[in-house]
Amino acid sequence: MGGQPLFILDEDAQRTHGKDAQSSNISAGKAVSESVRTTLGPRGMDKMLVSDSGDVVITNDGATILSEMDIEHPAAQMIVEVAETQEDEVGDGTTTASVLAGELLAKAEDLLDDDVHPTTIVEGYHEASQLAQEAIDEEVLDVDLDDDTLVEVAESSMTGKGTGDVDAHRLAEVVVEAVRHAKTDNGVVRDSIEVHTQTGAATSATELVEGVIIDDTPVHDNMPTSVEDASVAVIDAELDVRESNVDAEYNVTNVDQLNAALDAEEEELRGYAQAVVDSGADVVFVTDDVADRVASQLAKAGVLAVESVSSSTAKDVVETTGAKRLGSVDALDEGALGHADSISVQKHGDEEVTFIQGGAAAESVTVFARGSTDHVVDEIERALNDALDVVVAALDAGGVVPGAGATEIAIADHIRSTAASIEGRKQLAVEAFADAVDVLPRTLAENTGLDAIDALVDLRSEHESEGIAGVISEGQTGVIGDPVEYGILDPAAVKREAIDSATEASTMIVRIDDVISSS
What we know:
The chain is α+β, with helices and mostly antiparallel strands. The protein has 16 helices and 20 strands. Strands 8, 9, 10, 11, 12, 13 and 14 form a seven-stranded mixed sheet that branches.
């Protein structure tokens, strides 16, 4: 080659490799983790996120914060994916997973500085994560998951989140009632539970509706706004004059021909309305448009009609009432109708919504969440969805464990007690993993107002003597105690997923020693 350099990358490409690449990636991951750390726990703080267009989101939900942040660094995006995975799998614990991932990276950075090879760190972290799963299994409580226990699980999930003028206990009761309605022999059908938010009232007005709530309202002002013992039709068609699929011109030469054309249109529209009335339907949901003349005739017949409902709304109505979803009115008969105990149009604030309650299929329930402002109802909706997810996880995915950092203390203790039997430098990575897990109870203590170091020492001592110890928020500070006695419980599935996702993300970042960015 005559000593000439060989260029294989575009001249505008940027490359960072070796320790510089590792340091950059780890720093980015730690920065993202730190951004949500102060939101952890019952006394965690909120974040205000303002978009370029001026939209404001106020929340302490880790997944929401990270998804709203404009993050460009690829390693930092991996931490965002940790939160997204946690949210998708179990619905809660996003902040826990993100904070743990950041701390695992911080401990890995120290090991790299001590010349521990990245592969050794990865192997140690994976072995430690398996030990952590063993510890979680040992911490699962042998208790019946009755309503009282599930209320504690839901309340633990919501404590510290914006719940308006009502404490988390009241909302937790609504959540458990909703989950019980959706429970089947094969588990809880989570998709059967909806959360519908509406501004204009205090959060204490939140209630459970056995059925669905839709934003669509009657197409005609003279239609009834309340129907009891309703027969329901769902039609996937346009109730209007049919148009030709081909371009055609019609030459009308006299008034009789024009009147005949108008009479044909009128007959077609009258036929739509008559088909609905003859079927015995009291309420009809149409996914397309309803002509004004059809709506008028339905109103005269006392039929409530709703037009332009979305496909998902039509699906909800079908699942609630048991109606058949038809492609035209020609197939409409009594056998295609569903049933609801009541369908009513109610005004809340300046908006009207339609309640479909007591459906024959009775598969769907809706938590009707209220709040005084849009920001309040948005945060209430996030809190309720998290609570619903954790209750479902507790019932369907492995029971509950002590909260308040107690399970993390047990995990760290189990890992340390086993680390001594691991040979070589991998032992250092295993011990570093245990130290990283300590960040969770330490952060809880900080956010509660306790001295983090003293609290961690007290937690370890209490765990050693009593077998269980957590950080309990009490008044303006916190105490070390038994979280089970205080009713602070978390689903075991949330802990398992947080350990797995944080370990995978941190080890993936640690293994990267070359970053090549194209122009």
